[in-house]
Every structure is written in structure tokens, then in C-alpha cells.
Amino acid sequence: MKRGPMGAEDPLLRVEGVGKAYFSNRVLKNVNFTLGRGRILGLVGENGAGKSTLMNILFGMRVIQETGGYEGKILIDGKEVHFRSPMDALNAGIGMVHQEFSLIPGFTVAENIVLNRETLVYNPLVEAFGDRLTTLDRASMTRRADEAISRLNIELDSSTPISELPVGYKQFTEIAREIDKKGTRLLVLDEPTAVLTESEADILLDSMRRLAAQGISIIFISHRLQEVMSVCDDIVILRDGEVVLQTTPAETSVRQIASAMVGRKIDRTEGPAEERRSSDKVAMQIEHLWVDMPGETVRNVNLTVFEGEILGIGGMAGQGKLGIANGIMGLHPAGGKVTFHGENVELNNPGSPLSLGISAVSEDRRGVGLLLEESIAWNIIFTSLQTQGRFLKSFGPLKIRDEEAIAECARKYIHDLEIKCTSEKQHVQELSGGNQQKVCLAKAFETRPRLLFVAEPTRGIDVGAKKVVLDTLKRYNREHGMTIVVISSELEELRSVCDRIAIIDKGSVAGILPASTPSEAFGYLLMGAGAAEAEKAANDNSNGTEAASA
Amino acid sequence: MKELPSRRRVILKHILVNFVIVLLLIGLGVWCYVQGKTYKLSLGNYAYTDQNGEEHPALEAVEVFIDDREPVFLLEDDSGTGEATGRQHTMVIKLLDENDKPIESRTIKFSVADLDDDLDVNVAEFWLRAK
Amino acid sequence: MKSTSGGNAVTLFCMRNAVPIVFLLVSSIGIYYSQFTAEYLIQEMLTRLARNSFLVLSLLIPIMAGMGLNFGMVLGAMAGQIGLIFISDWNVSGLYGMTLAALIATPLAILFGWMCGVVLNKARGREMVTSYILGFFMNGVYQLAVLYGFGSLVPILNPELVLSRGYGIRNVTNLDNIRGSLDNAIELNIMGIHVPLATFLLIGVFCLFIVWFRRTKLGQDMRATGQDLSVAHSAGIPVMRTRIISIVISTVLAAYGQIIFLQNVGTLNTYNSHEQAGVFAIASLLVGGATVARASILNVFTGVLLFHLMFVVSPMAGKYLVGDAQIGEYFRVFVCYAIISLALVLHAWRRHADKERARAALRGEAGGAA
Fold it and tell me: pTM value?
């Protein structure tokens, strides 16, 4: 299996100058690459780098057309194509295996592989009642399924019900389904190893090599560095919607990919945080935390949060970073041991962390963070009122709201955080995203927490508001000594605000580094390389070798 | 596998087949109606005058069997109701003696279409026509 | 996760089939106290099996398609009854009458079923409640038609069927013309017990139909739709149409089932006979161990047997035990609704637990340790 240079005459897929902007927000710009027959292309990039958008364009997803189409050309076998729907892409021979499984749990592997493409046997009733009264030819179905499975070279009994399969084999079934479709020439695998164990991942990579040898081209989207290096013929790295590096495993190194992926953002607001001696006192100790949050499963997180520090938690989407805070705050089933200043935090009980002085600003501000149809003032004091009994006046046995105190408190925050509104009485749903976020922060601050979780603090906010939010966090930390844990998918944001940053991969901590460590080291952790490698990169980089950007 | 005909042909074929099936079912319904309709016949045992002007008396006592049903017992100038399902029927008339024992039995086949609107059957008349 | 030891297997069996087992126990006690003879009970059970099985079998297909318990089968029962009103009016008797009633009921049932299916598609996730209420609504429409339309707009020839005011069907319609015609079509007597062989043959044919149906593409599509609507949809299966088809089939079969039922009873309570058809059939199915998501032919027959055993036995058992036969009456109505509530609650709980278990599979080692 020789691996020659990229492309050749008549490649299977050529992407020329493809770009996409969602209204004013540009997510892809001038993407060019080529994919030959039987070759495996690795597509690498951080969250938000544009991978999903690129695949949506390739696959003809409706959302692309509904938001203004795309620029550039996509050519298959040298001819330009315009896919208007996933059916078009399927008919052209492009198959996609998503991260969420598309399997019928009660059906067997064989039935799922041939789903809605079963082999049918004619019988006369078809004339009267239509095609769907044909009977299934189960023998043929089993044969097709077994054939697809053997092409993958895995051990799988096609008569097993899907519900009894381990997760990795469900993935294989999905891939087998795409292979069974006649004419599949290009297979897109979107983070297939995310849910696999080590051994299953090895089997998958081996299957990919086999399929490539049989002439099927593969686009392998992954952030697992070793896997990409091990199996791909070509590697394309996206960052901020542009191709920053195109190379082959032979011509590149782990370090180069990591730094290309993470790179350095052009408009960084501040340099790494000034040297601060952090306290040795432990604010929160997290041991063996698991959280069952759909999409952000936490498996085994061990973390120490020191008093007075700003700790950052980063990681790729779906790896579990959002689950940590939500689990501790009792929003999702969780287990393990969490202590706060020596006291045990009761999990699965939202009242416990709140009463101990732990607050959180959720990443889901509209769903969890705000009472949309209530006023700003009410939102700001709500948690404090409920859990701490403040803002109330007693009238004999009854307690009623102290409207004056509430309004005054709200006005203070409106001033401090520069919340743009008509008055503290305005309904929160009328505010812009940035101002809504500020209300959420105000609400959390008002509970006077000793430890504050803030998840995705600047998501969906304009640049000016971003600065205000981050500065406010720093101010509360410096002035009030509030311990803050910031969870964010933007590495540079974390590096500008935090003292230390922990990277979460596959539901557990991949490594913790000081924020001043150059980005490349974090790139390693994000890609699932070991913590040791990251440390090494950190130390090497302090000698001044900078990352190459395209 | 034979080559697929055009979609229009297939749809037309479906419509035709379904139409035929509906027709067959309607036909079945009509046939069931005809075969299953149960008529209530008014059985009478009266004296009557035939076409030639001859007078015939009513029968003394008879048992009327229509199609293996329970017999209807009629005396002179008596009336009763009998049920008959379908169009063609076989009537067995048994003439009874004083002890209500059958002395003579005659069979006649008739159709409901032969009867008048009130479905009157004069058993005495039928007796003469029967064999 | 899979327990293979013998003791666990027995516990699992008991848990899965808790309801039929409880019914069997209670019925056994009831049999003892009711002092019925075995011969009487066997005859009663055979009669009731023949009478009710078709109706209960019609519930299987919507469950397969994920529509839950089809309370809308009442619409089919009404269609069947309208057919019976006509043949009663025209006095068509015997198997001819039954066939004709079925032929008249079929287009009506298809229409009702299609309507019901369209409405249920709009109420995705809440099909059962919607079909229940739809049953009430259609009951109103049926009464409007039968109480006012028949005899005025729809000509009724036989004055015996019509109310004294001149239009509207009487409360009780005599079905003497078809009484027992299917049951007695083929005579079979075993040791003095009359077996309605023809009915059982028809039921057998229906069972074969169900078995064959599961092996067709349409049946497979229904199973896929029933298990996971979004996956089936993204695979290209026309899920909305498939769901409607399942309801249409069920309604038509319910119409036939009601005709068979009434043929055995011999009398049509024009305004009441259909009301309990749905609830009793569904309760029977659930008693047989079926759930909202899964039901088999075995559940049908077991359920009809156990449910009606309770029906027959409880009044007499109540009389001898407590001195009041009414207790039996209350008991069986209570049991009906209790069993349906239980099944619905269990279903919701189990769906929730399944989702949790599926996600738990993604947890790491720490999850197991916790």
C-alpha cells in the first residue's frame, strides 16, 4: 500500500475555494484540497474550526441552502456537483457515519445494515396494494450483511440484536451499512473513535485501511493525533475556517499538527495572566466524578481547585467539560466525591452546592439560566431570595418581597456590568445575548458565592461585551477573592483569564498546565496525546520555537 | 429481474387492479344480499278459485316445511308466517289426518320472484301445484 | 449485565409476566369459591375466546408500529355496527348477512381509520390519550348519525328497528338473523361441549395473516417506525404514512371483530355495545402480559382467557364469599381500568429507565464503582 503525494489525475473529490458565511459570521474561507481514490484523508481542527460546516456542505444538508448556499466548487470525478439534499450525496456515492447512532435497537445487525434497502420477494398482492407487501428475503439480507462485515474484517454475528452490542460494534454496524450501499465510494467518518475503547479503535483503523485498499476513499474527522498519523494518507488541518496546513504523516510531526491546530489567535485581548502566587489552600476537591449528561459524559474526573485561583477547564466538544459543573450543581445524575472546604457536597441535589456557597452560570442561559418572562431585577435576585432568604421583609408570619432592595441591587449591577436595558423592570427576553449573559453573571455574583462555575461565558456575545464579562470575572476574583472555575471551548480566552487550565478528554482530565504555557502544549492535550508529551512540548517551547501558521 | 416499467404504467396498473377488486367486492355484496335475504312469507290455508273457475277448498290440516326449517302448522282458514332465505326454495307440504299424522307429502319448488308484494302463499293452491 | 443463573432467570420471568401470574392466582381462588363445574367453565371460556379474540388481535398491529394501545378501535366497532344495522334492516341472514355487514363496514372503517391515523400523527407522543378522546368524539358522531340520520336521511325499511317517533334506531337491535351463524357454521361437539370451530378457523387465518404481515416490507417498516421514529425516518421510510396504515388496518379488523362478537351475543345494544369494546379488549391484552410497546399472539389468547375467567368467576365467587354478587361486578370493572393504568405507568417508567441504562453504558469505570 504505497502512499504517494496527494491528488493525481482525476481525483475522486476536489474541493476548490469552498467558503461559507452564516449571514455575517464567516465560518469557512477558501478551503482547497483533493482526495484520491482509495486514500484516507484526515480532517483535523478544534471546535468551531469549520469541520462540521464543511461536511454539511459536502453532504448537501438543507441548512446550507437555507442560509445562503456556499462559495466555491465541489467536483466529483472531475465534474462539478451541486447537492441539494443528502439523497443527492448518497446517490453520488458519499456515505456518512455520524457520531449519534442511527440504529433501530430491537433489530438485528443484519436488519440494520439493510434498513429500508431490504431484499424483497414478489408476491401477487403487490399489484393491488403496492410494493410494500413484498416479503423480505431474510437469507439474502443475512448474506449481504455478512459480506459487508467481512469487508471490514471484524468479528460480528449479524443476527445479534443491536441493543446487546457494545458501543464500538454499533459503530461498526453503521459503517457496514454504508458499505452495503452499492456505489459508496467516499465514506465520511465523524469522530468515530470517540466512543471506542483502545482495542476497538485499533480494529476500526484496520478496517479503514482495508476499505481504502478496496478503493473506497475515506475522510476521517478526528482529533486523536496518533490515530490520524497512523492511518491517514493525507492530513488537512482547519483553523478558524481556513486550511492552515496540508501534509502527509511522513512530512510532518505530532508537534507541527498540534501547533497548527491550536495556533495563535490574531486578536488576543491580553497576554498570559501576570504572575500570581496562588494559595495552597484547597477550595474544592473532586474525586472520581462521573456525570451522566447526554452528550457530555464525564467518566472519571479528579481535580483540585485552589482557593482564590481562576481555574480553566477546556476540551473538545462532547468530551465532558460541560458535564463537570452541571454534575456538581446537581443538574444531571452524578456520582463520586466532591468536597468543598472540607465539607461534603451532596450530589444529585441542587440545594446542597447552593447552600454551601457554590454557584454556577450555565452554558444554557436561555434554558437554565434565566426566567425569560420576568424582569431583570427579579432574575438577578431570584437564587439569592430562594436559597438565602434575602430581599424579604417580614410582616408577622408572612414574608413578602422587599421591592426597594431588589430594585436597588439590580440597578447596581446594571451600572457595574454595563447592562444595556430600559430599566431594571425590563423583561429579560428582550435583551441581547450579551446583556442576558451579564444578567446571569449578576445573578450568580449576587449569591455571594465562594466558588463560581462559569460555563461558556462569552458564547454568542459581541467583542465589546466579551471584554466586559472577562474583566468582571477577573475583578471579582482579585477584589473579593472569589474562586472561579471557567469552562470554555475557546482556549485563548482561557489563557487570557485563568491561572491554570485543565483539559478534559474522553470524560477525564488529560492534563493540567499553567495558563502561560504556550498553546501548542494544550494542543497536544486536546488531541488526546499524553500529558507527558504536552509537558515536553511546553518545556521545549520555552526556548522560543514558535508554531507555524498558514 | 425484468426491467422496471415506467411509474405511470405501474400506477395505472394499480388503479385498474384495485378498481376490479372493488367491483368484485360489490358483486360479492350483491350476491350475499340476494342469497341471504330472508323473506317473511305469509302462509295461508284458504279456499281459492283457480284460473278455470274451479273452486278448491282449504286443506284440513297441514304442516309446511320451507327449506328444512321448523314446520308451520296450519288448519283450515289459518294463517302463519314462514321464513325463507334466498330466492329459490323447496316447500314440503304434509297433509295431516285427524291425529295430526302426515298422510301425504308433496314437494314444490318456487321462487320468491313468483310471489306478489305481500309475499302471500296460499298453501292450498301450492298443494295442487305440487307433486 | 446478563444474569444466567437459574434463580435469576425465574425472577426475571416472574417480573416480566407479573400481571398474568397475579390474574391466574386470583382467578384460581375465584374458581374454587364460585363452585362452577369444569365443564361449564370450559364451555364458557371457549365461547368467550371465540367471541373476543378477533377484537384483541386487531390491537397487535398498532403496537408494532409504535402507536401504543389503539383505543380508537372503537371507531371500527361502530363501523361494524352500522353494517349490522343495515343487514338487520334488510333481513339478510346467516353467513351471507355477516359477509355483507363486513363489506358495508369496510369502507366506513377505512375512512374512520384513516381519519384516526391522521389525527394521531399530529399528536405524536400522545397517541393513546388522543385515541381515547377521539373514541368519545366519534361516539357522538355515531349517535348523531344513528339516532337522527337513520330513518330520516338513510332509509330504513323495517319499522321494527325504528323508534316510535319515526326516525332513529331503537336501543336494542335484534340480530336473530345472524345469531350464531359463524359459530355454528361447522358443528363440533366434544363430550357435550360445543366448539365454535368455524370462528376459531377464522381466528387462525387472522393469526397467520399477522405472522405473514410481519415478514413483509410493510411489516418491517412498521417495526422500525415503532422502535425509533427518527432513525426510520432518516433511513427513508415514510413513517407518517406507515403509521396511518397501521391504524387503518386495525380499525378494519376491529370492525370485523365486532361483527363476530355481536354474532355470538345475538343482540346489538345500538348505543352501548361498542363503548366497552376498546377498554375490554385492551385490558385483556394487557392481562395477557403485553406492554404498550410489545405484544404477541400468545399475549392475546392468554389475556382473553384470564380476563374473562375473572369476569365469569368473580360474581359467583363474590356471592359465596361475601354474600353479594355485585362485588364481582365492581371488581371486574375496577380491575379493567386498574390494569390499563398500571400498564401505562409501567411503560413510561420503563422507557425512562431504558434511556438511563443506555446512557449508563457510556460511563467509565468510575461509574461502576460509584
Answer: 0.77
